[in-house]
Amino acid sequence: MNELIDLALDAATRAGVSYADVRVSERLTEALTVKNGALQAASTNLSSGFGVRVLVDGSWGFAASALLDPGEVERVAREAVAIARASGLGRGRPVTLDDSPPVVGTYRTPLTEDPFSVPLDEKLRILFEADAAMARVKGISVREGSIECARERKTFASSDGARVEQEIVEAGAGIEATATNATDAQVRSYPNSAGGQHVTGGFEAVRAMDLPAHGERVATEAVQLLDAPDCPSGEMTLIIDSSQVALQVHESCGHPIELDRVLGMEASFAGTSFLTLDKLDTLQYGSEIVNIDADATAPGGLGTFGYDDEGVPAQNVPIVSAGRFVGYLTSRETAPVIGRRSMGSARASGWNVIPLIRMTNVNLRPGDAGSLDDLIADTDDGLLISTNKSWSIDDRRLNFQFGTQVGWRIRHGKLAEMVRNPTYTGITPQFWGSCDAICGPQEWTLWGVPNCGKGEPMQTHRVGHGASPARFRKVRVGVGRW
Amino acid sequence: MVIGREARVDAHEVLDAALSRVDKEAEALYLARDAALTRFANSQIHQNVSEHDASLRIRVVDGGRSGVASTNRLDPEGIADVVRRATALCERAAEHPDPTPLPGANGGVDSRLGWVQTTADADPEVRAAGAAAVIEAGRRAGLSVAGAFSTDATVMAVANTNGLRSRHATTGARLLTVMTGTDRASGYAQAISPDIGAIDAAAVGAEAAEKAVRSVDPVVVEPGAYDVVLEEYAVQTVLEYLSLAGFSALAVEEHRSFMELGRQIMGSNVRIWDDGGDPSGMPAAIDFEGVPKRRVDLVTDGVATGVVHDSATARRAGTSSTGHALPQPNTFGPIAWNLFMAPGDTPRDDLVRGLERGILVTRFHYVNIVHPRQGVLTGMTKDGTFLVEKGRIVAPVRNLRFTETIPEAFGRIDAIGRETRLVGAEYTGINARVPALLIRDFTFTGATAAESAGGGG
After folding, report:
1. Is A480 on the interface with B (CB under 8 A)?
2. How far is B124 from chain A (nearest CA, A)?
3. Cβ contacts (< 8 Å) between A67 and chain B: which residues?
4. Number of C-beta neighbours around residue A418 at 10 A
């Protein structure tokens, strides 16, 4: 492997590049899905290949191939250089990289139980037991459970002398029950929607979820939702559960702090950001209890690694401090624009695509509001909502609207009736400015988002968000009627 | 390019090599793709990439048991390994009580519908020239230009132990741009075709620039119900999410679709269908099971008349597959992604004249499904939203959020454009050839007017 990497770097260097890097990776995944009491799908996927990225006269070129042989490596390196020269036809400001020192190192995801060593029978036992638990509830039309594991081995090397080897292991699982009647369909999931919870780590994370223990509750709530009243409309005090706060952070903080987006590089796809350069260190993003970090070192996070895909070591940097906006996610190309060195968030979803600025684990720090029960007890009149169902945000990450699977009214400090189809909407800084309570560390969960999309061609990547339940005042809920 | 690779790796040789190693029933799917994309932002090329990949996916079936494995190592060792992994999974898998057999022999399909050699041969200089033409159009208007010019060439081949043999080669080219200027000016245009020669980069640039120049300094409009004209870009996005929410037989089977077959669910002037064989779209001859695609009339004169099937949903429904399978088995079900909506008889430019007071929407952004059973969608307007009074555009408008029950809204279509346009999806690959629409009482539930509040140092 090292010979092929050296060959690619040599070929690019001979062609006159000012910088080159090579990534070789192999990603093995396994996915199991049990649906309505039957094994619906059992699959494994192996994808390997390499990509060569070069800078020629200040312009980027990138080419990638699945064929790992010397002839192809040389061809791809030459193709990357030819593409970079074509980029020069439409070049403006030449690209310059920061002065991050080249690093030589290795990283392996810490784990207890290798998910690929767990017998298939054991994984299926968990899924079938969870399915049976959901099946005990009458009125469920679709039951589904899944377990996914992944192992990625990758090597990065650059013409600067960096060389990094990593092995990242991921595990995830979840269940979902759908109840239907003549006019409606309602869904409940555990531990989260969109395939459940995902972490970097071993199969111990899946065991800890204890899917079977939650099957009956999930199914019961789905059936109850069919007859629940609709979410009320108007301005209310809103308590958002940990998993939905995580997605709120993802959309309204994680994406707008991507510095390439701020600089207009994503304008043609999902848009730009309201967090323009003049807002750094000046904007009051949220209330003073809001503290957000980007932490690629957080144990178990889906955005946890040893080095990013430019060879920069994983770091934990502040993003929002006492409500003030203080940091961006950066890469070696973009960090110099704000006079900083990359904080290590350039990530590629695979061997075949370039690294973009991606979230690592963008975490809302826990607050001092105690447990969720404490927070509910402290709320006279409001709404508790849980588990994401839909999401949408504008192209500057300001105007958002989310829907969740379930809500409960809060009256006089106690949970009251369940409501269905909860939605809420707001404007990002106003919304975070209305945050007046965040639960403590005992309620804090580091959630994995395995389906974050960005870039053209679109890269679906894996990121993390830690959050505790939080309370927001005067939020518009019950948006749209149907 | 793929064709060059095919000289080294023949699709059916790979499939046969894999199937010959299996002692049970099996399906083999070969997918090879060359893709290149030149991306520009701030009026300069900033990303420029190319990739080649080819993969083999094996599904081994033994009665109710099945196992799937895939790889992109296509040497003999890689093929042997993927067969071994699929077989091992199959042997250890739990028995499915109601399995669907592999599709039967089809006499062989070998299609190049939608293959254009010049697209497959496009080099980075061609894409750079297209990008430069768009950038120049924006520069002349004083705008900052972003966008992407992409080309791809794909070969998909499927074979199974029942004797099915299918192969389809396609190409695609897509150019899109977003142009922005001072005072929130923003414009958009795109073009998509199997033939890169059909993409007029200068015209794409001119269209976006014209929109951006007209959208300077937008005014605030309160949310509420407005008569709207949705341009083709917006209509495609609505159809794309209707497809995801409910055009699939599995969604109907599981009672989570707005499609109530046989019932009037939209206005009688609405006809929507899926047709992978129509060369005026982005053709696709076969699905991922190798089954030839058939036209499916989804909504006919407002009545829900059909949904798309794969082998599994078709068997359970007592019909035959329409050729809309994703790689099997899966929990998502079949998907309609070659959509068409019938044009009307109103000249496109006359639609706006039909608005006494309303909103012209160029496109929607970040649409998502709020309630699939009802067909409720939400999303934002983007890149050219205008207030119309007495049939004339009077001002650009700050972006609005809509939350709307689309089947009901499609019951209030007052006029349909005479012309149609092929529009590529932003995220999903669900392309659609659609007209512009005039819809009464379209519901906007939010605005970005307050965006500047809440900040400040």
Report:
1. yes
2. 6
3. 52
4. 17
Q: Running DSSP on this structure, what letter comes out for residue A253? A: I
Q: How do A324-325 and A316-321 pair as beta strands?
A: antiparallel
Mean pLDDT per block of 10 residues along chain A (482 residues) reads 92 94 98 95 96 96 94 95 88 89 98 97 97 97 98 98 98 98 95 97 98 98 98 97 98 98 96 97 98 98 98 98 98 97 98 98 98 98 97 94 98 98 96 98 98 95 98 95 68
CB-based contact (8 Å) between B378 and chain A?
Answer: yes
A388 by DSSP, 3-state: which?
Answer: strand
User: Measured between CB atoms, which of A51, A268, A282 is closest to B177?
Assistant: A268
Using a CB-CB cut-off of 8 Å, the residues of chain A touching B79 are none
Q: Hey, are the CB atoms on B369 and A390 less than 8 Å from each other?
A: yes
Q: How far apart are the first and last CA of chain B?
A: 53
- Closest listed residue to residue B311, CA positions, set B11, B17, B27, B83: B27
Do the Cβ atoms of B376 and A480 come within 8 Å? yes
Rg (CA), chain A: 23
Q: Which residue type does B188 have?
A: Y
- Where would I find the H helices in B260-336? 311-317
Q: A222 at the B interface (CB within 8 A)?
A: no
B201-214 vs B124-140: helix axis angle to the nearest 10? 30
Report CA-CA distances (Å) from B3 to A14, A239, A241. Answer: 29, 57, 52
d(CA A70, CA A277): 44
8 Å CB contact of B180 and A354: no
Query: Per residue in B117-158, pLDDT tens?
Result: 999 999 999 999 999 999 999 999 999 999 999 999 999 999
Helix (H) or strand (E) holding A477: strand A470-477
A263: closest chain B residue by CA: B42
- Count how many pairs of residues, chain A against chain B, have C-beta atoms within 8 Å: 298
Q: Report the alpha-carbon distance of residue A360 to residue A341 in Å, rounded.
A: 17
- Mean of all residue pLDDT scores within chain B: 94
Query: Are B403 and B447 a contacting pair, CB within 8 Å?
Result: no
The reply to whether residue B52 touches residue A90, judged by beta carbons under 8 angstroms, is: no
Amino acid at A9: L
Tell me which residue has tokens 């009243």: A229
Closest chain A residue to the Cα of B38, Cα to Cα = A87
Closest CA to B439 of B307, B306, B346, B329: B346
CB–CB contact A456 B403 (8 Å): no
Residue A29 at interface with chain B, using a CB cutoff of 8 Å: no
Nearest CA distance, B103 vs chain A (angstrom): 17
State whether A39 and B48 contact (CB < 8 Å): no
CB contact set of A471 (below 8 Å; sequence gap of 6+): A237, A238, A239, A240, A369, A375, A379, A382, A435, A436, A437, A438
Dihedral angle, C-alpha A305, A309, A313, A315, nearest 10 °? -60
Q: How far is CA A149 from the centre of its chain?
A: 16
Helix, strand or coil, per DSSP, at residue A423: strand
Q: CA–CA separation, A416 vs A384, rounded Å?
A: 10
The model's confidence at residue B5, banded by pLDDT at 50, 70 and 90, is: very low
CB A367 within 8 A of CB A322: no
CA distance B256 to A202: 35
| Axis-axis angle for helices A120-135, A211-226 (nearest 10) | 30
SS3 A409: strand
Is B318 near chain A, with CB under 8 Å? no
Picking from B456, B386, B239, B176, the residue whose alpha carbon sits closest to that of residue A282 is B456
Radius of gyration of chain B (CA): 24
Query: How far is residue B207's CA from residue B138's CA, in Å, rounded to a whole number?
Result: 10
∠ CA A454-A466-A281, rounded to 5°: 75
ipTM of the complex: 0.94
